[in-house]
Design goal:
Blueprint lengths: L4 H13 L2 H8 L3 H15 L14 H28 L5 E6 L1 H6 L1 H11 L4 E6 L2 H9 L5 E5 L7 E16 L22 E2 L9 H9 L2 E2 L3 H9 L5 E4 L10 E5 L6 E9 L6 H13 L7
Parallel strand pairs: 1-2, 1-3, 5-6
Antiparallel strand pairs: 3-9, 4-7, 4-8, 4-9
């Protein structure tokens, strides 16, 4: 017969209480049931755990067993609590990679809502470009991704969240802001242009020609907007990237061939998300309609 957790717990409780009656009350068992369990444990060990039948003094074996059993029960209880908390989405870590505009505009609300319901769950969020989001997802470094694009490998499952318009972003003092006519894609050829990583996702020949001829490529969004603020040039970005509260940048819609950026929620195909991550995903889906055009 192997030593069981219930047997160890009964022994530890009796040893700490100093008698069967109090231990039985603490465990919600009868004294006879506890006594029988201790007898089985002593028969298995081949030596008594208590000096007398009153159970108020431990033998040398009993003192050693109390120390070891107490340690094992504490470990068992911690492990049980951790497993149960994980299963109930009360514990664990959410690993997610998102594009910068989503990290800045969408994630604060999502994280606040989630944290109110699950305050003990850790969230590890990384912001990066769409290609990096996909790469980290396929490497299993993250469990969820939010990125731009419409073509993903068969290893990735995508769900469209929303879309927002591409337009020209410039400093408020830029000449293009004062045009007395609608802005066109061909206007990009007139002024200095700052290319960025998102340009590759925009199927417009005039833009692609301008990207090829541009002498400046900036892939980091924060650095890109700093360049625009310095009036070094204009660029093309989705509307959500430009904070409407920032008064030195201007988003100008393009009148012809309005193009949109599609934002997708990504996860590995045929993978089961941890409980907390699944709930986080559901919150993202529920609030996606508050952003973009969809």
């Amino acid at each position: 017969m192997a030593l069981k957790t219930d047997m160890l717990r009964s022994f530890v409780t009796v040893a700490r209480c100093g008698n069967l009656s109090d231990a039985a009350k603490a465990l919600g068992r009868t004294p006879s049931a506890i006594s029988m369990m201790l007898k089985q444990m002593e028969e298995h060990l081949g030596s008594p755990l208590f000096e007398t039948d009153r159970k108020n003094k431990l033998t040398a074996l009993g003192m050693f067993a109390l120390e070891e059993a107490s340690r094992e029960l504490e470990h068992f209880d911690r492990a049980t609590k951790a497993i149960e908390s994980y299963a109930k989405a009360k514990a664990g870590t959410i690993r997610i990679a998102v594009v910068p505009s989503i990290a800045e505009n969408m994630m604060p609300q999502i994280i606040r809502l989630f944290a109110e319901m699950h305050p003990d769950v850790h969230i590890d969020i990384q912001d990066m470009d769409s290609d990096s989001v996909l790469r980290e997802l396929e490497r299993e470094s993250v469990d969820l991704g939010i990125a731009t694009g419409s073509k993903f490998s068969s290893r990735v499952e995508s769900h469209e969240l929303f879309s927002d318009d591409f337009g020209i972003v410039c400093h408020t003092s830029h000449e293009i802001a004062n045009l007395d006519r609608p802005v066109k894609w061909t206007d990009l050829q007139i002024w200095p242009f700052i290319a960025n990583g998102l340009c590759a996702h925009i199927p417009n020949e005039h833009l692609q020609e301008r990207v090829q001829s541009s002498r400046l490529m900036v892939r980091n969004t924060t650095s890109l907007l700093a360049m625009v603020r310095a009036n070094i040039g204009l660029t093309v970005l989705p509307r959500l990237v430009v904070d409407p509260l920032v008064n030195d940048l201007l988003f100008i819609p393009i009148s012809e061939q309005q193009l949109k950026r599609q934002i997708d929620l990504l996860q590995r195909s045929n993978s089961r998300l941890p409980p907390a991550t699944q709930i986080f995903r559901e919150i993202v889906l529920a609030h996606a309609s508050e952003y973009g055009a969809n």
